[in-house]
Amino acid sequence: MPGLGASFGRGAATTYQQDLANSDCILIMGSNMAEAHPVGFRWPMKAKEKGAKLIHVDPRFTRTSALADLYVGIRAGSDIAFLGGIINYVLTHERWFKEYVLHYTNAAVLIDEGFQDTEDLGGLFSGYDPKTREYDAAQGHWNYQRPPDQETQQDSSEGEQGQGTGKQQKSRRGRKGVHGYGLMGGATAHLQPKSASTEAQPPEDPTLQAPNCVFQILRRHYARYTPEKVAAICGCTPEQLVEVAELLCANSGPERTSAICYAVGWTQHTTGVEIIRTAGILQLLLGNMGRPGGGIMALRGHASIQGSTDISTLYDLLPGYLPQPIADPNHEKLDDYVQYEGLSTGYWANFRKFIVSLLKAWYGEAATPENDFHFDWLPRIDGDYSQLPYFQQMAQGQVKGYFLFGQNPGGGGPNARLHRAGLRNLDWLVVLDWFETESAVFWKSDPTGPQPSQIKTEVFFLPAAGAPEKDGSFTNTQRVLQWHDQAVDPPGDCRSDAWFVYNLGKRLKRLYADSTDPKDAPLQNLTWDYDYDHPHLLPDGSLSRIEGEPDMEKILQEINGFNLQETDPRTGKPRLLSGFSECKDDGSTACGCWIYSGVFPEPSRNRARDRKITQNPVQPEWGYAWPHNRRIMYNRASADPQGRPWSERKKYIWWDEEKRQWTGYDTPDFEPDKPPDYRPAPDAKGMAAIAGDKPFIMKPDGRGWLFAPGGTKDGPLPVHYEPVESPVPNTLYPQQDNPTARYFEGPLNALAHTPESEYPIIATTFRLTEHYLSGPMSRFNSWLNELQPEMFIEISPELAAEKGIEHGGWMTVISPRGEIEARAMVTRRLQPLVVEGRTIHQIGVPFHWGFAGETAGSIGNDLTSLVADPNVSMHEAKAFACQVRAGRAPNQPTQPTKPYAPWPTREPVPDTPPSAQPEGQLRRTT
Amino acid sequence: MSDSTRISRRPALEGSTTWQPAPGERTAHAGKEQPAPTYYDVPMLKPPVWKWEIPSYFFLGGLSAGAFVLSRLAARFGKGRYREVTQAGTAVAAAALAPCPLLLIRDLGDPKRFHFMLRVFKPQSPMNLGAWTLMAYSGAVTLAAMQEWLLGRRKGRARRDSLPARVAGDALSAATDGLGIPVALLLGGYTGVLLSTTSTPLWARNPWLGPLFSASALGAGAEAINLALSAKAPDAAREPVEQVGQAARLAEAVTLGGFLASAGSLAAPLTQGKYAPHLWGGAIGAGLLLPTLLENAPVGSQKTRRWVRIAGAALGLAGGLALRWAITQAGHPSASDPQAARKASRKT
Amino acid sequence: MLEPLRTAFRLVRPEEIAIVERDGDGQRPTMGFFTDTTLCIGCKACEVACKQWNQLPSDGLRFTGHSYDNTRHLSETTWRHVAFVEQIAPDRSRDRSRWLMMSDVCKHCQEAPCQEACPTGAILHNEFGDVYVQPDICNGCGYCIVACPFGVLGRSEIDGHAHKCTLCYDRQKGDMVPACAKACPTDSIQFGSVEELRAKARQRVEDLHARGQTEAYLYGADATAEYSPLNAFFLLTDHPNAYNLPEAPKKPVKGMSARYGFSLLAGVALTALSAVFFAQGGRR
Ligand SMILES: Nc1nc2c(c(=O)[nH]1)N[C@H]1C(S)=C(S)[C@@H](COP(=O)(O)OP(=O)(O)OC[C@H]3O[C@@H](n4cnc5c(=O)[nH]c(N)nc54)[C@H](O)[C@@H]3O)O[C@H]1N2
Ligand SMILES: Nc1nc2c(c(=O)[nH]1)N[C@H]1C(S)=C(S)[C@@H](COP(=O)(O)OP(=O)(O)OC[C@H]3O[C@@H](n4cnc5c(=O)[nH]c(N)nc54)[C@H](O)[C@@H]3O)O[C@H]1N2
Ligand code: SF4
Ligand code: SF4
Ligand code: SF4
Ligand code: SF4
Ligand code: SF4
Ligand SMILES: [Mo]
User: Fold this and answer.
1) A713-761 per-position pLDDT tens digit
2) Of A442, A808, B17, C31, which is most buried with the most CB atoms under 10 A?
3) Mutation test residue for ligand 4: of C108, C123, C231, C251, the one with most atoms within 8 Å of CB
4) C-alpha span between A597 and A681 (Å, rounded)
């Protein structure tokens, strides 16, 4: 999500799905929303009912395309070209939203003279180091121009989101992959203060004429993305591009708004972050950010995947997007850390409050101002532990043991074969899951693997409890926390993940209880008491069978935070915080994840439990959205610079002159009483440095970033690069692919560097409504299996004819990583594209099948590769090179591991007379 | 399901490629003499779940009814000349009726519930009416059998019956005929109506099916009696029975023609393909043509005459069975053919 | 011991096979479905929701190659079925390319051939005006299966009874929306009083026409010359045949009494003739 962070400040969907119903035009690109988010797709459909235009841009004609007003088929991996073409159209036809752009974006800001664009350097920005394949933003002068008085040679400012290359080599800027994800968006190295590259009040040229102002740089940068050129790259027609551009322009401005929805069709590219950046630039130019019916809807997938980045299951993040400190002198002491990671202006000026409150939440009494709140106890990162390089190391036998909680890398991981090789090289593996997945039975059922006798891994399978069998909360794609109560006890030995972790922690603490070794102190002092105060009852009032289950609401309270100095008379415990604004940096508050603070403001008030439908269309009382229950972020931008709604039709948040405060339907994402005409003093710090007409408060300058000074690791502006494996040369720039992309080449992970005649066909992977991810949650259920019973591959009749492939017959796909077989789904929904005068074929590969479950099928991910985008180590499963032929492939999954059971559940409904049992349960009646 | 489980080799894109701007119109394809687009050749209707029991029941029920009617007519109008016909007819009727309920029950999805049809009287359902008819008819056959038994006992006794006995006898036979004959005629024909009151293209609302089954019922009855007599009482008088047989054959030919004509191309599964031999060879060849030929065959000796008769009757019966079999079984391919279903449900 | 026998042999109470007054009776409106195929995203949630609520078995694992449709048709174990029709021109031109999706279901005919055919009275119009098969009365004769002009019903190999959509009779009794309609994310399946649904549907067609989607029309909302209105009717955008629906469903019972007449006529004629033959003693 740093694509969004770099542009707006927070790396999360800027709006909520219900709000899509208020859009006048919705561009769905890089997502198959109708199939992968069917319930959310209700809202685009509602908008369509109201006359909004739906656009779907996708390599395949999908169920989403079927419902769209306009479908444009493009080549996988050509999105930046397409969006760049729209940006160019908007700029050349003067269709951008002048007042919005002038006040709310950094269009007028002057960039350091030394900056050189891809125009001048053949597809590279200034500051590129071919040896390390990395940018040095400072060397490249990506930063804002400084007021003459404080000219100082600025140093490195590379994006902080990435994890460096797997090669782990030394470099001037310390080890790669150790630069945490860190503050959303803003970007500087850990080796000098983050605030270095930007200014709260940088020099501007309101006329937008200065050659080095962002606006002019942008103009020049996208000038070459003409409709004709773009069409030639994407394989569509210039008319189609213009039509999409026109629809977006016609439906943007004071009276109308357009929204953009994307998902992994964008992210799963070595340029993924930059594609999202391009969308961000477009939405800023059209003035659609922070407004109803506008914004960028990142459709995140896995239940609570948003939550798992907020509370952070990522190795380089602490809860609330605080960077994990690294093994580096600048992170020795808390003060250095704060100085280097915090910002002096904008909301991140509160950085110290958040980290201190976190340390208090974790180490309690032991964390005192005197001992630096034991910042030294936090583990330091010394390498890249993101999934891809980590499994590569595993495959090389460098990892001994592994806990697998609800993940199936053996089928879902890119280059799944390599992932399985990794699992095979472990000494022990603990799989905590609902089903015996590929990752649990790889040692005996993998047709591509060696004999079980050759595998040393000892696998422990622990049955996990299902969602209805445990308390907890989901944070969905729109940042809304929704609590779910345990309905029943899990069967048999099944236990919740929390139970497992909590009790594992308890045992470890017991184990090290009387150790005197200082390195055990963090464990000894870790706050770890979440036992129920009262008996653990189920909704029906009966006593739960499960012993040792932690009280999840206690954990949510810790996340929400306490004021340790005040006690709540009702509980006799420290008072719960009403929100993160209460966090202090003196150790008087504890807060487990600052952005969630406010979710549990009072002892008996878990706002994630709220399910109230109100008159307010925003429904603020349904669940709880971070930050501080804001449903549309940056919503100050829904009012004009003077604080008036842009139009009656698009009224949302406005300045109430009498009350002297911001009001509206949503919680203002702004200081509630800061008037629109507020102007900061030149040396103002913190929020005081943000003017009353600067809506993007997470940014040090309060502006939306068209040009990202700190930049992401691959540049301050998005550039069209070809996918790492592309049969097509980059005809926009000499530079073929992302110069900062990271490779993990090896025998198990061969790449077909481009252009490649051996693999002339483009493959992309996708989802079906009927199945879920690598399949464990659907392929064990015959009601879903019957709907899509076999692995198939979508291929155009043209290509099928060329290769003699028969509809419904077998076909084989070969990539440098492996080969798989599948049924051929010959359909005109796929089309050959004419790219730069050449006919290019694409195929669609679902990745839902494997050898475990009720239906067995080839693993789509045995084709995909391990390559990583420089910012978030995202793989490129959405565009890679392959070859196809008719017929079957050797040793593919055929034997399902579970016998087919027509009734997934068939027990008669308990305590129910036969007459009232489900209809058609089809038992012989007498 | 009964229709094919193989993968259709037709690409999805050929599923239905016609564009229909004006709904309700015939499809572009159908306009020209090409087949209307189907949905991947998936049947639009469900084929009957009936197996061999139903056509067999149709045949035996009809045969029984026919034999019964003739036996009663022989008794009432035969002026005592056709005692053997009545005896044989009654025996045949009873014998053919006996397995009928068993066949019906065996065919059911839930056999122990056969009598559920008799918990309601619902004449608008041919099957319900049929069930009741069968019951009533069994009653009639029982009465007839009783009389035969009584007459049998009286045989040989010299003294004439007392008046009351005679009155009773006449009343009994009057009841048997008055109730029995109409019910028997209904039984012979309702099966055709039952088939024609469905959506199966071959049968749907074809007015000739009823008469066809009625005719072939009487025909089969006649042939059966013939056969029985040839076996038991070779020299018994029976010309009328043979005449009825001929008349029935004629009627059968006419109604079958009518049936095929009004079914038109929808009769294809019957006139061509799997069940064509049953129709042409069985129903028409063996059932109609050969018996006619044999009857008019110039054969001299009594002995050969007798064998020719037997052969003719046997062929006639086989033909009757083949007719029911072909028409009923051909309903399966008919219902499974999406093109037929489309044709049958077209606006006219 | 005696109980099963008694239930087995008692006569059916009239109301058990009664055809509840439809539309006419004021207090309870006829409930039904309006399935708007222009809103269907083919997610099959309806199909799964139906199977789960009614605990119907999966039909087996069979890849058909019929676009995304692998369950193929309604059956005794599939009471909702989503059809997929790919109509994409060879040149992929926009105005001649589309992908139709349609969730099919029992039509709950106001005058239902299956109900008329049923000899046991197992099929009735319930108090919601919907056609319901009473599994405890059905004896599996299979007559309804050939009577239905839409090929909806099937006979279960497992319990030997005919089954089809109940329009969630049980849920309706509990004032719940049918499972399929509840699951439908885009309101392609709309449940309600047929009267209101019809009005809604007509409005919808007008709107679509106004927007240039002139091919949209209602299927089964009104009686045809041949057939009663359907309580589960559809909005379609192609010829019914494209969705495997009959162009003009026909009533099997139409002309039934005449057909009885013909068959009796034939019987009586031959009987009379036979009488003559016997009377004349076969003299020529
Ligand atoms: N039923 C179902 N729903 C799901 C999931 C599931 O497995 N099953 N998974 C959930 C999860 S974890 C996630 S992350 C989301 C993902 O949701 P989506 O991203 O919508 O799902 P995908 O089908 O992987 O990809 C979407 C589309 O991207 C297209 N695409 C591929 N390459 C490109 C490209 O280069 N450019 C463009 N513009 N489009 C491209 C594909 O053709 C596909 O149609 O879905 C969530 N919802
Ligand atoms: N080629 C290709 N590969 C892809 C993608 C793609 O688009 N194309 N998409 C990628 C994306 S976006 C994602 S999110 C990943 C997803 O990949 P994974 O994270 O591996 O997702 P699943 O395969 O669903 O595995 C999740 C497992 O968690 C188990 N589970 C569910 N609930 C619980 C629970 O409460 N507790 C426990 N302990 N286990 C539970 C399920 O049974 C299942 O086995 O796949 C990625 N892989
Ligand atoms: S599965 Fe869950 S998250 Fe996905 S669409 Fe359905 S309801 Fe939404
Ligand atoms: S559609 Fe068929 S099954 Fe449904 S009510 Fe009408 S006739 Fe009966
Ligand atoms: S099968 Fe059952 S429901 Fe159908 S007609 Fe026969 S008895 Fe009635
Ligand atoms: S109404 Fe109920 S029974 Fe009928 S299809 Fe819907 S869910 Fe199934
Ligand atoms: S649930 Fe609704 S949208 Fe999904 S397939 Fe069924 S009818 Fe269509
Ligand atoms: Mo995902």
Assistant:
1) 899 999 999 999 999 999 999 999 999 999 998 899 999 986 668 999 9
2) A442
3) C108
4) 30
pLDDT mean over A117-145: 93
The length of chain B, given as a count of residues:
348
Give chain A's radius of gyration (CA, Å): 27
Measured CA to CA, the distance from residue A442 to residue A448 in angstroms comes to 9
Please give the C-alpha separations between residue A104 and each of A258, A348, A634, A665, A708, in angstroms, as whole numbers: 17, 19, 10, 21, 14
Number of helices (H) and strands (E) in chain C: give both, helices first.
Answer: 9, 10
Residues of chain C positioned with their CB less than 8 A from the CB of A825 = 65
As for the ipTM of the complex, it is 0.93
In this prediction, residues B106-126 reach a mean pLDDT of 94
pLDDT tier at A633 (50, 70, 90 boundaries)? Answer: very high
The answer, yes or no, to whether residue C151 has pLDDT greater than 60, is yes
Q: Which tens digit of pLDDT belongs to each residue from B196-217?
A: 999 999 999 999 999 999 999 9
pLDDT at res. C277 = 95
Q: What pLDDT, on a 0 to 100 scale, did the predictor assign at position A21? A: 98
| Summary mean pLDDT of chain B | 88
pLDDT of residue C4: 53
Neighbours of A454 (CB within 10 A): 9
Q: What span, in angstroms and rounded, lies between the C-alpha atoms of A273 and A868?
A: 11
Cα–ligand 2 centroid distance for A302 (angstroms): 7
Check: CB of residue A260 under 8 Å from CB of residue A283: yes
Q: What are phi and psi of A274, to 5 degrees?
A: -75, -30
- A295's tokens: 């914004």
What is the model's pLDDT at position C17?
55
Contacts with A, C 79-118, CB within 8 Å: 79, 86, 88-90, 92, 94, 97-101
Q: What is the rounded distance in angstroms from the CA atom of residue A432 to the CA atom of residue B31? A: 62
Measured CA to CA, the distance from residue B267 to residue B263 in angstroms comes to: 5
Which residue(s) pair with A481 in the sheet? A475, A624
Classify A561 in phi/psi space as left (phi over 0), alpha (psi -120 to 50) or beta.
Answer: left
Minimal CA separation from A916 to chain C, in Å: 8
Distance from the alpha carbon of residue C168 to the mean position of ligand 6, in angstroms: 5
At the topology level of CATH, where does C12-250 sit?
Alpha-Beta Plaits (3.30.70)
Q: Can you tell me which atom of ligand 6 is nearest the CA of C79?
A: 5
List of chains touching A (3+ CB pairs within 8 A)? B, C
CA–CA distances in Å: residue A91 to residues A250, A285, A403, A698, B102: 14, 9, 51, 27, 86
pLDDT in tens, C218-277: 999 999 999 999 999 999 999 999 999 999 999 999 999 999 999 999 999 999 999 999
Residues 6+ apart with CB under 8 A from C184: C45, C46, C103
Higher pLDDT, A187 or A257: A257
Domain boundaries, chain C: 12-250, 254-284
Lowest-confidence segment of A112-121, A150-159, A227-236, A723-732 by average pLDDT = A150-159
Q: How far apart are CA A926 and CA A432, in angstroms?
A: 44
Name the C residues in 8-67 with CB < 8 Å from any A CB.
39, 41-45, 47-48, 51-63, 65, 67
Res. C115: pLDDT tops 90: yes
CATH topology of domain B53-343: Formate dehydrogenase/DMSO reductase fold (1.20.1630)
Which token pair is A16?
């909520």
Instruction: Tell me the sheet residues that pair with A404.
Output: A431
List CB contacts of B214: < 8 A, sequence separation 6 or more.
B185, B188, B189, B192, C263, C264, C266, C267, C270
- Widest distance between CA atoms in chain A: 96
Predicted TM-score (pTM) of the model is: 0.93
